[in-house]
Write a structure and sequence with these properties.
By secondary structure, this protein is an alpha/beta fold. It has eight helices and twelve strands.
Length: 297
């Protein structure tokens, strides 16, 4: 089965109200729709653009929580776009309140407009200290009309165990909405995303916020969308099906072949998804003292 993925590099720019946000979202999702994709992905916390017109000077934690007031409008807009253009929409992530706690949540909308959620599991120091978010506690595998997918939000892709868990459950594609402020942060996520593609013989689509906002912690962004493959003969030479131009607003599109993925997991040059020596992972690490000087600490 051939599957087309469109990853949106979303440019954060100051806006004056909800209409400014909605107009930009509609434009970008319409542009993505022109390529007839099966999946469209927006970046992590791209809805932080709403902070442009909220009071963030005195209390950033309170301002972020006020973004929850826009959650119903966000859901209605994204469900409408997914239905209108007949694609699965991984609508980036949006800070939302549940039971008095703030979560960074990826929302996925189906072509029928149904909504599913994946909370971010691992928080960065910035998310803990500045926004006081709460960690998610459950990893999901979503069975779609175009294969099984997992969603790992930004920092979560830096934990190999999460990707392995969802791939062992059957994932064909991992989606990684991301938001990074500098080049080092971007490359941490990008290198880890590509490693997960190789380790698990899975496609990994990643996208980032670009641009800037006059908001604490969001003033600068460094990003690039890419769609990565395993590293073997059936795929692109460098394991990159497509990638964008760094720090520019654009839509990156690539076709991936799920049948090639299935065959590679069985007949690949290496098959790391199945070659895992499970018993070794169950045993504790054996500590061996190999110091050359007796008694040396």
């Amino acid at each position: 089965m051939k599957v087309r993925i469109a990853a949106v590099q979303y440019l954060l720019r100051s806006i004056n109200d909800w209409d400014g946000f909605e107009n930009q979202v509609r434009f970008m999702l319409k542009a993505a729709a022109e390529y007839k994709p099966n999946f469209v992905m927006l970046p992590e916390i791209f809805t932080s653009q709403l902070l442009s017109f909220l009071d963030t000077d005195n209390d950033i934690k309170a301002a972020v929580r006020r973004m929850n007031d826009y959650t119903p409008r966000y859901k209605v807009l994204m469900a409408e776009m997914a239905r209108k253009y007949n694609y699965y929409l991984i609508a980036g992530s949006h800070p939302n309140m549940r039971d008095g706690l703030l979560y960074n949540t990826a929302f996925m909308f189906t072509p029928q407009g149904d909504v599913f959620m994946q909370d971010k599991i691992h928080r960065t120091r910035w998310e803990r200290d500045k926004w006081d978010t709460t960690s998610g506690s459950k990893l999901h595998l979503f069975q779609t009309d175009y294969g099984a997918i997992g969603i790992l939000l930004c920092y979560d892709i830096e934990f190999p165990e999460l990707a392995r868990m969802v791939c062992e459950a059957g994932a064909d594609i991992l989606f990684v909405p991301s938001s990074t402020d500098d080049r080092q942060g971007f490359w941490r996520v990008r290198y880890c995303a590509h490693a997960r593609a190789i380790e698990n013989q899975v496609y990994v689509a990643m996208t980032s916020t670009v641009g800037n906002l006059a908001v604490e912690g969001l003033s600068m962004h460094y990003g690039q969308a890419s769609i990565m493959t395993p590293s073997d003969f059936p795929f692109s030479r460098d394991g990159i099906a497509a990638e964008g131009v760094t720090n520019m607003e654009q839509v990156v599109v690539a076709d991936v072949d799920l049948d090639a993925l299935t065959q590679n997991r069985i007949n690949g040059t290496t098959i790391p998804l199945y070659d895992k020596m499970r018993q070794v992972y169950k045993d504790p690490v054996e500590i061996v003292f190999a110091r050359s000087t007796p008694g040396k600490a």
